[in-house]
Automatic annotation (TrEMBL):
Protein's name in the database: KRAB domain-containing protein
Entry's Gene Ontology BP terms: regulation of DNA-templated transcription
SMART domains: KRAB
Coiled coil segments of this chain: none
UniProt domain KRAB: residue ranges: 8-79
High-level lineage: Eukaryota, Metazoa, Chordata, Craniata, Vertebrata
Organism, scientific name: Molossus molossus (Pallas' mastiff bat)
Length: 89
């Protein structure tokens, strides 16, 4: 049996795109991305994920494009960084 490494966060299961990357996706890929991201978030909430709703999920729910600006990716090392905020030390 594997040892637990702690709770799963949204950024563990999320994929982000820059505007340029997003524009290269075809409509079916964009729809699939939206469906998978919303489903992943829903599953996390159903198992007790308790955090502010990530901005990418808010955008997807409102039918907006979810890409992030170049340089706005959250850092991987700061506690509390999530996909809805760029790291601001």
């Amino acid at each position: 049996m594997h040892e637990s490494q702690g709770p799963v966060s949204f950024k563990d299961v999320a994929v982000d795109f820059t505007q340029e990357e997003w524009q290269q996706l075809d409509p079916v890929e964009k729809t699939t991305y939206r469906d998978v991201m919303l489903e992943n978030y829903s599953h996390l909430v159903s198992v007790g994920y308790d955090s502010t709703k990530p901005n990418v999920i808010v955008k997807l729910e409102q039918g907006e494009e979810p890409w992030v600006a170049e340089g706005d990716f959250p850092c991987q090392s700061c506690p509390g960084c999530d996909l809805d905020l760029a790291c601001r030390p």
